[in-house]
Amino acid sequence: MDIFLQQIINGLTLGSVYAIVALGYTMVYGIIQLINFAHGELVMIGAMVAFSVINALAGTHLPPVLIVFIGILAAIPVCMLVGYAMERIAYRPLRSAPRLAPLITAIGISIILQHLALLVWSRNPLAFPQIIPFVTFPIGGAIISGVQIAIILTSVLMMGALTFMVYRTKLGIAMRATSQNPLVAGLMGIDIDRIISFTFIVGAALAAVAGVMVGTYYGIAHYGMGSLLGMKAFSAAVLGGIGNLAGAMLGGILLGIVEALGAGYIGDLTNNVFGSNYQDVFAFMVLIGVLVFRPSGLLGERVGDRA
Amino acid sequence: MNSLLLECAGLDKRFGGVLALAEVGFSINRGEIYGLIGPNGAGKTTLFNALTGIYSCDAGGFSFAGKPLAGLRPDQIAARGIARTFQNIRLFGNLSALDNVMIGRHVRTRAGVFGAILRTRATLAEEVAIERRALELLAYVGIAARANDVARQLPYGDQRRLEIARALATEPQLLALDEPAAGMNATETLELKKLLERVRADGTTILLIEHDMKLVMGLCDRVLVLDYGRKIAEGPPREVQRDPRVIAAYLGGAEGAASS
Amino acid sequence: MNIFAKILTKARSKWVGVALIALALIALPFALAAAGTAWVRIANLAILFAFLALGLNIVVGFAGLLDLGYIAFYGVGAYVYALLASPHFNLHLPFWVILPIGALVACVFGVLLGAPTLKLRGDYLAIVTLGFGEIVRIFLNNLSRPFNLTNGPQGISRIDPFSFGAFDFSRNETIAGLAFSGPIKYYYLLLALLLLAIVVNLRLQHSRIGRAWEAIREDEIAARAMGINTTRIKLLAFAMGASFGGVAGGMFAAIQGFISPESFVLVESVMVLSMVVLGGMGNVWGVVLGAVLLTFVPELLRDWVQPVQQSLFGKTIIEPEVIRMLLFGLALVLMMLFRPAGLLPSAIRKRELTKQK
User: Fold this and answer.
1) A33 contacts in chain C (CB < 8 Å)
2) ipTM associated with this complex
3) Contact, C85 vs C91, CB < 8 A?
4) At B113, which CATH number?
5) Domain A3-129+138-293 classified CATH 1.10.3470?
6) CB-CB: which of C204, C219, C224 is closest to B113?
7) Closest chain C residue by Cα to residue A283
8) Best exposed site among B159, C167, C209, C282 by fewest CB in 10 Å?
9) Domain region containing B125
10) Helices A39-57 & A225-240, crossing angle to 10 degrees?
11) Model confidence over B166-222: pLDDT tens digits?
């Protein structure tokens, strides 16, 4: 088996999930310069809601693809609502406060959502029911599964849709204007509050789908899955250049590949002194490395203090 | 001793494609009050930021007391003996006036973590000296009564004075003031003029950006006029005032010069 | 009454107050022991967390840097203690040797993390420190290979308690007719260490370095122009905070006798941050209050929430641990929204945090 190609495929799969989550971070950061620490929890909530629905429907004779689709459709509005509420309750009142304040509430919201989920779904992970037959396709010495193909395709589709929305619709133009200069955008008649709410809602919808994808990929979802994933996705956003949509996509996919290759080869490279259990370290190494050597990221232009 | 304090030669600073400063050169002697004037956007504050290490220069640069300043961080430049104020006042707004000036003493004092924790005799003596000097400086600029007031609640003119006191606390050889009279009324401006004359008399050289021409004319020994990032005149205020290029720059274009 | 007499009575009433508080603190463990030794242990934990929170207060409160990986330094200190005073390597150094080593090692970690990252803007620092905390935890979990340094997820057990020669802090004994249980003896030692930490915090706050931290928090550009080497001064805050964390970690290892990577996860960093925020960033007494409240209240809740739920529903619906975490989260959100400067605000931080820019 071609390990290299296999790891690239695995990396692409995870990377496209990171990219979708990273888009949420980057959109919010671009528009209000806030690291929404609770964004990862939206991914978790999306996965949990979808899995609950999918499990409930698993016994019926609906086609499996339709069941997953219904699960996603259920998860999206829930996440949108939570995303909207978190902005209204925890971030909007602090928009003119010192930067430290919304960061701290973001941490608080993240902890609260995580433990509310624990209350609702308990500590036990939800498993993805065996409704979709596990199909694989050989591809040049490696294999790619049907789920992987679905994840990659869905991600590409969503990235396309988002790009279209941001660059081709009126709402997207308003978003970009607000991220350039909220004050002036406001003077031009753009309802800033609405645009910011909208940004959170779009990010939350993306997070919901990402949650279903990553849950399906690993086969389980649980209340604590959001924070690590969120941190990695944020690293991806920084890698690509925070505030930059294309950067988030590129950063997500690169990070996925770095992680997969790292996990695949670290054992060989270090004579098995370090194993693949160090996989999670790579994302943070990348994050710290980027911030130290190129804080603007691969595609970012905006650098430094707004002094 | 050489009377030359600050020398600037061939200074370029660009932002993207825009040349904010182009081949600017001048020199300031010890004990001078040197004015820097020019229309809005001429590059005066950019020059200040380049001087104090906030911006790096793209070509040329400064030499202070015979040593180049290139590559130094703002704090190192302050340590060399250049202190500044800001056009849009940058006090430590939530601290008291006294604390603001005491922070200015940082660069001339030494107490570290261990001194602070152990409260060594040297640290305590230094603390007393810092506070005494800060109070002296507040009195020097005329706001001694405001020592315990919160900086951002001070009247505007007092905030400007406080910024000068804070800058003086670093024991500068060169005091760089960015529009110190902005927003002041005539009485306040007159008092400011007296204060700056006293600062000079006490041995500190002053570099002054100012729009109040009366103040510049009455105070400065020499002035440098910038327009679109270029030096267009330099000399005693009276001469510069009559320079057609300066008049043109201020009135906007060649027709202005012709009609005057 | 003449003015001297007035000052004298004022000073005297102040000392009377201090003496009363001191007496209360001395008597407290015996009162708590009457309710059960568990409460003395909780008091000890509260003191320990207060110590830890005071360290974070230097970073967040004084210098205004959001450190979300603070628990990593605590973990480093705990492991230093565990490795040097347990059968794991068969080393049994005395605690007064190890605690300074723990402080030093944690300090080195703080500098290693801070040096490259403190030039970054505040919110980036938050996420980098968060990542750093995770990295330390992952290493603690996995460094049982290539050689067994941390014993992996099983952690290290049978850690030596604090002792002075033959005087062992974990043993019960009777002195002058009073029964001193292990936790009570620890209480006095921890209290003494906490007082030391408070003094250090207060002295740092009102020093040249403390003023430099204030300046950086207020306006970094102006601070630099005034000759403050901001990177170095921020690093100093980071290193000081880390050292506090290192010492607290050593104390934790000794009291518990067992540590594992589980104790040094992100939510613990959030807990310490909640204590600082609840009490009041930058206010030493507020931070101590925050730590005491957020240690005791969850325990009190644990004591009656569970029985109430049992009697009402016949089962536990909300686990006490979940309530504890929800409290931390709510403390962060509600304090920031409604009382950003904390329960006992520092005057300056209050002005800063209520400022509408």
Assistant:
1) 123
2) 0.91
3) yes
4) 3.40.50.300
5) yes
6) C204
7) C131
8) C167
9) 90-171
10) 130
11) 999 999 999 999 999 988 889 999 999 999 999 999 999 999 999 888 899 999 999
